[in-house]
Amino acid sequence: MPTPEVLFVCVHNAGRSQMAAALLDHHAQGRVTVRSAGSAPADTVNPAVVEVMNELGLDLSKEFPKVLTTEAVQAADVVITMGCGDACPVFPGKRYLDWQLDDPAGQPVDRVRPIRDEIDRRVRALLEELVPPGA
């Protein structure tokens, strides 16, 4: 069975999609290929996002926002937009989900933590669907 590929998309690829990608990559331990991108990438990952992920031992300091490409969407089995109304190319045979989540942009760390925790809950549920325990 091929390794499933998940693409997380938000406008700036500086917050929600970065957290989701890092969390899924961490939990999947190589069982899922994970990417993230944005339609209008920011210059850097949100510092509050870096901080709250660091609290979990996940280092995003070397990550950077990436531009959304048609090729990335075509390669993905599951494309998840992060509640930001992103225009994403639609291809047959792909699974598309939209996770409505608060935007961490401009938020203090104590407001970003609950966003991170909700993303973590959703990522764990997605992982169980994609790679059932024992698979």
TrEMBL record:
<dbReference type="InterPro" id="IPR036196">
    <property type="entry name" value="Ptyr_pPase_sf"/>
</dbReference>
<keyword id="KW-0059">Arsenical resistance</keyword>
<dbReference type="InterPro" id="IPR023485">
    <property type="entry name" value="Ptyr_pPase"/>
</dbReference>
<protein>
    <submittedName>
        <fullName>Arsenate reductase ArsC</fullName>
    </submittedName>
</protein>
<feature type="domain" description="Phosphotyrosine protein phosphatase I">
    <location>
        <begin position="4"/>
        <end position="129"/>
    </location>
</feature>
<dbReference type="Pfam" id="PF01451">
    <property type="entry name" value="LMWPc"/>
</dbReference>
